[in-house]
């Protein structure tokens, strides 16, 4: 007797939650279930204190952690391009245009938000058109719908030949399909949301089968942004968090209409958030920008700012002081903003430098005012290898010292 696609997905996701690890609870990692390629919900740690839904406001469909702007997404080189077929594509490193599943998902989330505010039926049709293109290009594995990237990509010293897949994308696009599926007349997209979500419970099986999630040796679940074909996790922190919070944003909106789906969203989301809390300091580089991936030693100023924003958002929504502590540490390690302001230099000797694009000093001098002196700063930043007392430098915008960075010293130059 034929089994419907939805029934097959439901059966695949029906593994019960059999263990919750409470805050501070010690013990061995959960024992893997004998489920083949499926990650059982009893295989990873779940902190019960994160069980409260992460929702910004009643009726909101905004992600709990703000997603990055389109130009910051790996694989995009400039703005999106809408082709003659009406499908959004981006330019990849090879110069060609491709569907970018993450760009599409974020476009849909924002478009549905707009439609909810304005009542625009045109916006809803546009969102559906983009998701239909993703579905057409997708890959199905045992009821799970993977959204492929069709261009080659290299990152974190790894090469990803097309097609490759991303746990961040699968998580964010679960929300994209889901929020459109909540709109009357578009309910079919909720079925697609279940299929996309099902990928987040597919572990590595072999090099030829897509996968985007895994449980590490300590029992923590990763929704992996750049999983390797050989089964290695990338442990990219920001992508993991974006995926986790996307699931938890969708959860309360389907709890009544699709309780089975909701329970899976909640379990995986809480498990992923538990991982985010456990590894919150693993990217931190004391006195420098944090690293892009867990355990790496390469400071990344761009993603350092993303990590600060994530810590702030997760602390605000969970109340866990560990996120707040890490937030403060990261802000102190490296400036959050590169905007300027007024500089005040007190009497004494101040060190000034010029730097090249890689942060290497190219010139140095001192300035010793006899009275309090002020000027305008156009940037506040930090250069690797130039930490000194704190490593922060203020770029002077006006006056005879314009173009020089002055070393920020609390109480003396700030």
Topology diagram in text:
Layout: H1 5-12, E1 81-82, E2 88-91, E3 97-98, H2 101-118, H3 121-137, E4 139-141, E5 144-146, E6 153-155, E7 158-160, H4 167-181, H5 188-198, E8 213-215, E9 221-223, H6 237-254, H7 259-278, H8 301-318, H9 321-333, E10 341-345, E11 350-355, E12 361-367, E13 373-382, E14 392-396, E15 405-407
Helix content, binned percent? 25-40%
Rg from alpha-carbon coordinates: 24 Å
As a percent range, the share of strand residues is 5-15%
Structural class: alpha+beta
Which blocks of ≥5 consecutive residues have pLDDT under 50?
1-29, 55-62, 68-77
Overall shape: it is elongated
Q: What is the count of DSSP helices, taking H or I runs of 4+ residues?
A: 9
How would a crystallographer describe the biggest sheet? 6 strands, antiparallel
Main-sheet strand order equals: 10-13-14-15-11-12
Mean model confidence by pLDDT: 82
Order of helices and strands: HEEEHHEEEEHHEEHHHHEEEEEE
End-to-end CA span: 75 Å
Number of strands: 15
Quick overview:
By secondary structure, the protein is α+β, with helices and mostly antiparallel strands. It contains 9 helices and 15 strands.
Explain how this protein is built.
This protein has helices at 5-12, 101-118, 121-137, 167-181, 188-198, 237-254, 259-278, 301-318, 321-333, and strands at residues 81-82, 88-91, 97-98, 139-141, 144-146, 153-155, 158-160, 213-215, 221-223, 341-345, 350-355, 361-367, 373-382, 392-396, 405-407. 33% of the residues lie in helices and 15% in strands.
